[in-house]
Amino acid sequence: MAVFRSGLLVLTTPLASLAPRLAPILTSAARLVNHTLYVHLQPGMSLESPAQPQSSPVQATFEVLDFIAHLYAGANCHKHLDVRVLLTNIQTKSTFLPPLPSSVQNLAHPPEVVLTDFQTLDGSQYNPVKQQLERYATSCYSCCPQLSSVLLYPDYGTGMLPVEPLDVPLSSTIRPASPVARSPKQPVRGYHRGAVGGTFDRLHNAHKVLLSVACILAQEQLVVGVADKDLLKSKLLPELLQPYAERVEHLSEFLVDIKPSLTFDVIPLLDPYGPAGFDPSLEFLVVSEETYRGGMAANRFRLENDLEELALYQIQLVKDESHKEHEEEKVSSSNFRQRMLGKLLRPPNKRPELPSGLYVLGLTGISGSGKSSIAQRLKGLGAFVIDSDHLGHRAYAPSGPAYQPVVEAFGTDILHKDGIINRKVLGSRVFGNKKQMKILTDIMWPVIAKLAREEMDRAVAEGKDVCVIDAAMLLEAGWQNMVHEVWTVVIPETEAVRRIVERDGLSEAAAQSRLQSQMSGQQLVDQSHVVLSTLWEPHVTQLQVEKAWNLLQKRIPKIHHARD
């Protein structure tokens, strides 16, 4: 069976009957399409009449909005699919609607196959229904020249359907914040301009519900606020957030795909209200269950400034059926970021100059991140661990390779009476003094690097496959040039401060000063291959390290097997 990168699914069954069939239809489509699946709603359309079918407006009702939410929720089972429900033909009850475009709509990923749920018992290649389907698809959207067509019926057939009646209304997922009772067939009102906001990190199906409802309500312009800067600080694992420009790029492509007739104003959201708090031309705001209180606060702010309240539309959260114990129960970007922990983020470095058959990891992280505990967990799994602090102690010792150069550079007053270097005195001399610090690091870092190379040879002699260099200053020292991968441990700065205060007895100010003298978690992650975090219970950290280790074993070159 051929598999296509992009496809167009034309749904023709009336929505009340379609909802119970949706899961098997999506499963059938997911077997044929492996990347982008566009969905076009045309309930009641026949593909068996001799005349070429035309796209006709679909009245936007709460049933339609609920169905779209239901479809995106169902698509969560198919992680590989980027599902996009096209909204051009879905129209609200409004007097200022633009006419349906007669031109073909361009799509970011032109479909290679068109699929339909239309029920016909003749599934042959020459079925006129398939020809009508292809004509219909190409009259509406830009498709690949060699467009294939597939009739999904009866593959999703009746055997998979639930026993309950097929006209049970969908659960309500969209609620207008007004005393007016909503019913499934109630038309949705259209507005000139409205707004929606979010982080939109790794655009997922819950985001798509929020955006789709906003696009249906808006007739002329939609303002989309994308959280940035200070609003990102409280996010879980902010170091793994996509950059603002990347989030905007993915978001813009999705929006233009689903409703190109709208004007989109995508702006950075730098405070909790954004344009919803001050823009007099806005008429509605789409919020989630979680951000509803923020919408109410924005309305209070508007009233205080003599602006009309916005109509609020609240969207239910989409449940994540596959969430783990420490993850959120809803579909969320933070769950996606947590699942990135332990995974390879960029290709490993080739290091032919390193000992043959030894795979070297550089482990780093801000002070208090739990880096050393991760090193011990890796040691427990079979890694050879090189502690750069321990190498530093060896280098400073009277017989060590750095002793004489350091004493010559900083004088004998940094020595104890017994001739050993007093690291506290030396530290006070260089801390906060960039020139003095550079003198010290220019001596120490090459010496520690040389000692680390010697330790690598010892790891090979012991028959080890994986070697871990545990070093807080790994990147500052340029030691990423002698490892295959950089692994970074991250935690929020507030948690790092708390741990440093508790562990080292420093004041909060002193702990913050220490962190500010180091590279930030974000700077470390930007150069890392794998990211880990000790933010959760120890058993969660252990599972995370085991996952990273198991993935590492799969990608390590197997050359070490021939070493003997």
Q: What features would you describe in this structure?
A:
- The protein is 35% helix and 17% strand.
- The protein is an alpha/beta fold and 564 residues long.
- The strands form 4 sheets. A 6-stranded mixed β-sheet has the order 8-13-12-9-10-11, sandwiched between helices. It has a 5-stranded parallel β-sheet with strand order 4-2-1-6-7.
- Helix 10 crosses helix 13 and helix 14 (493-504) packs across helix 15.
- The protein starts with a strand and ends in a 9-residue tail after the last helix.
Pick out the low-confidence regions: 158-166, 559-564
Question: Number of DSSP helices?
Answer: 17
The level of helicity is: 25-40%
Distance between the termini: 46 Å
Shape: elongated
Describe the largest sheet: 6 strands, mixed
- Rg over alpha carbons: 30 Å
Give the overall pLDDT as a whole number.
91
Strand portion: 15-25%
Strand order of the largest sheet: 8-13-12-9-10-11
Give a count of the beta strands, DSSP E runs of length 2 or more: 18
By secondary-structure content and strand pairing, the structural class works out as alpha/beta
Family: In the central section; belongs to the eukaryotic CoaD family.
Keywords: ATP-binding, Coenzyme A biosynthesis, Cytoplasm, Kinase, Mitochondrion, Multifunctional enzyme, Nucleotide-binding, Nucleotidyltransferase, Phosphoprotein, Signal, Transferase
InterPro entries: Cyt_trans-like (IPR004821), Depp_CoAkinase (IPR001977), P-loop_NTPase (IPR027417), Rossmann-like_a/b/a_fold (IPR014729)
GO molecular function, one term: dephospho-CoA kinase activity
